[in-house]
Amino acid sequence: MSELDRIVIRISAAEIAARIDNLAHDIRAAMPDDTLMVPILTGSFVFAADLVRALARAGANWPLDFMTLSSYGTGTESSGRVEIVRDLREPVAGRSVLVIDDILDTGKTLLFARDLLRGRGARDVRICALLDKPARRRVELAADFVGFAVTDEFLVGYGLDKAGRHRGLPYIGAIES
């Protein structure tokens, strides 16, 4: 049996789509028109693409820029050290910023991103995470917008990977042993 055959769906594609539409309306109502969207690559690319389109349907016409941060490498456990792999090109000073990520796990990566953007003079930094895994939190941090709270299991699909694999699955699942 292949690893793909052992993936059990935890959140379906339909549930994800419906929740993203709701998130977009909440975010649009809460964020100003000068908001800069900053997806954290690579994991957030699927979620960010769908969220950007949902925000457009909700009336948001916001610019975006990408940042790549890494604390995992090819493993399944965070190294605890965050590094900037690709930095923003857009200035953030005086702007509202919406940081978009696939999962709020230990919190170290998103805390790093928030503090970095605040340090660069962002007026307001808010976090949107598709998944929130509070059982793994190692720092004091909460997302402003959350798609789903999840339990402490290793998840793949919809941008989430295991050593670079399974990102393209249209759902979020757990690999059973």
The fraction of residues in strands falls at 25-35%
* End-to-end separation: 11 Å
Query: Count of DSSP helices?
Result: 3
Task: Please state the second-level CATH architecture.
Answer: 3-Layer(aba) Sandwich
Average pLDDT, all residues: 94
- Tally the beta strands: 9
CATH class: Alpha Beta
User: How many individual domains?
Assistant: 1
Q: Low-confidence spans: pLDDT under 50, at least 5 residues?
A: none
CATH topology: Rossmann fold
Strand order of the largest sheet: 4-3-2-5-6-7
Fraction in helix: 10-25%
Shape: globular
Please describe the biggest sheet, giving its number of strands, its sense, and whether it closes into a barrel.
6 strands, mixed
Topology pattern, helix = H, strand = E: EHEHEEEHEEEE
CA gyration radius, whole angstroms: 16 Å
Determine the structural class based on helices, strands and strand pairing.
Answer: alpha/beta
What does this molecule look like?
The protein is α/β, with parallel strands linked by helices and 177 residues long. It has a single domain, classed as Rossmann fold (3-Layer(aba) Sandwich), CATH 3.40.50.2020. The protein is 24% helix and 27% strand. The chain is built from three helices and nine strands. It has helices spanning 13-30, 45-57, 108-119, and strands at 7-11, 36-41, 67-70, 83-86, 96-104, 124-132, 145-149, 155-156, 172-175. The strands form two sheets. The protein has a six-stranded mixed sheet, sandwiched between helices. A three-stranded antiparallel sheet has the order 1-9-8, with helices on one face. α3 (108-119) links the parallel β5 (96-104) and β6 (124-132). α1 packs across α2. The longest helix is centred in the first third of the chain and has 18 residues, at 13-30. It is globular. It starts with 6 loop residues before the first strand and ends with a strand. The model has no long low-confidence stretch (mean pLDDT 94).
